[in-house]
């Protein structure tokens, strides 16, 4: 069809003449061309996928997936001297118009520098790099090389852990990680630069609080969403080739949990049900909505994201306390801008959540 189109339209110099020539000489190609990208039809196909997802993904299946990840997760012992910061959904991109991380890049660097200087361990809970929209991880690294250099400093001191989410599910493949994260090709220097040699990307991690022996489960949370888990390659295709271009015209991506409030609530409800059923504390991401329960409520936490319009959020664990924080730009009394860390919730003792009798079991 492409060859035929080129042959028909070759003699013409403007789009209108090309369209008219195609309509007259190849009406079947003309019909296909003018129907590409029809939003109503595409949304109809997505609704069929979503209907299948609803039927196929039961609460029981979602619970099993999360429990499987929990059972196989590597454990990291922590105590009241540990300092940990958790962030998620950075969605680092290639610096183009679609790179939501770029507008908060300075906030992120300021926060990361603070945590590095103060001996925190940095844990990224999924979707650190947006490899649904961007084909090559090296394109992301080259644009945000200062971010990755700082992360490499954490890694050199054994203070860095990566958990993959749906948008960077390719990191599940150890061969991909070895090829793309152990080192990267610096476009300016035209040479390979060491980065995270021998790093392992996890689907989940468990923080074992040695003071009580209790465990805190960390995972992205996409396991309860069929399109973002079992069918993630289809989701990546839809985002990369369909919804990303349409976003230019103001059409929201219905596959995105972060932009679909009903889907967001459904995900949060399922994650909360897992917490209640398994009697385990959970910290996740995926929905982009920060969550910090009151003591006595089911301990489902969410780090939020680094692509909010004017701030980034995360969760800190220090001195046996857990705190929800955000970093944003503020104005001082002289009218000068500065980057500010603000406590959104907490600090609250971990033991207020880890004592299992404090939150009710409801099936």
Describe this protein with a few key phrases.
363 residues; globular; Purple Acid Phosphatase, chain A, domain 2; alpha/beta; single chain
- The percent of residues in helical segments reads 25-40%
* Share of residues in strands: 15-25%
CATH homologous superfamily title: Metallo-dependent phosphatases
CATH top level label = Alpha Beta
Strands, count: 14
Distance between the termini: 56 Å
Coarse shape: globular
What is the number of domains?
A: 1
Mean pLDDT, all residues: 84
Layout of helices and strands, plus pairs?
Layout: H1 2-9, H2 15-25, H3 27-35, H4 39-56, H5 59-72, E1 74-78, E2 83-87, H6 105-117, E3 121-125, H7 137-143, H8 145-156, E4 160-163, H9 174-180, E5 183-186, E6 191-194, E7 201-202, E8 204-209, E9 214-219, H10 232-247, H11 261-278, E10 281-284, E11 300-302, E12 311-318, E13 321-331, E14 337-349, H12 351-354
Parallel strand pairs: 1-8, 2-3, 3-4, 4-7, 9-10, 10-11
Antiparallel strand pairs: 2-12, 5-6, 8-9, 12-13, 13-14
């Amino acid at each position: 069809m492409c060859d035929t189109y080129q042959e028909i339209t070759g003699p013409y110099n403007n789009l209108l003449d090309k369209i008219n020539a195609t309509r007259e000489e190849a009406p079947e190609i003309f019909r296909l061309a003018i129907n590409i990208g029809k939003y109503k039809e595409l949304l109809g196909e997505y609704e069929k996928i979503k209907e299948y997802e609803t039927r196929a993904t039961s609460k029981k299946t979602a619970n099993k997936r999360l429990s499987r990840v929990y059972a196989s997760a590597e454990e990291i012992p922590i105590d009241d001297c540990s300092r940990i910061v958790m962030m998620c959904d950075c969605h680092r991109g290639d610096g183009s118009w679609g790179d939501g991380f770029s507008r908060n890049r300075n906030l992120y660097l300021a926060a990361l520098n603070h945590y590095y200087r103060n001996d925190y361990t940095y844990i990224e809970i999924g979707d650190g790099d947006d490899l649904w929209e961007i084909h090559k991880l090296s394109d992301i690294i080259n644009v945000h090389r200062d971010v990755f250099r700082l992360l490499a400093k954490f890694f050199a001191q054994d203070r860095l852990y990566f958990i993959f989410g749906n948008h960077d599910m390719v990191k599940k493949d150890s061969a991909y990680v070895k090829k793309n994260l152990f080192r990267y090709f610096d476009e300016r220097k035209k040479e390979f630069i060491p980065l995270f040699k021998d790093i392992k990307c996890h689907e989940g991690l468990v923080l074992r609080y040695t003071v009580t022996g209790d465990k805190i489960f960390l995972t992205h949370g996409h396991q309860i969403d069929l399109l973002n888990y079992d069918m993630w390659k289809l989701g990546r295709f839809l985002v990369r080739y369909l919804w990303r271009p349409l976003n230019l015209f103001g059409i929201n991506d219905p596959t995105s949990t972060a932009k679909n409030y009903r889907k967001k609530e459904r995900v949060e409800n399922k994650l909360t049900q897992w917490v209640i059923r398994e009697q385990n504390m959970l910290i996740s991401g995926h929905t982009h909505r920060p969550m910090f329960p009151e003591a006595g409520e089911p301990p489902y936490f969410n780090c939020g994201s680094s692509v909010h319009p004017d701030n980034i959020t995360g969760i800190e664990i220090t001195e046996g306390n857990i705190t929800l924080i955000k970093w944003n730009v503020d104005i001082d009394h002289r009218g000068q801008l500065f980057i500010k860390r603000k406590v959104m919730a907490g600090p609250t003792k971990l033991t207020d959540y880890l004592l299992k009798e404090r939150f009710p079991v409801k099936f």
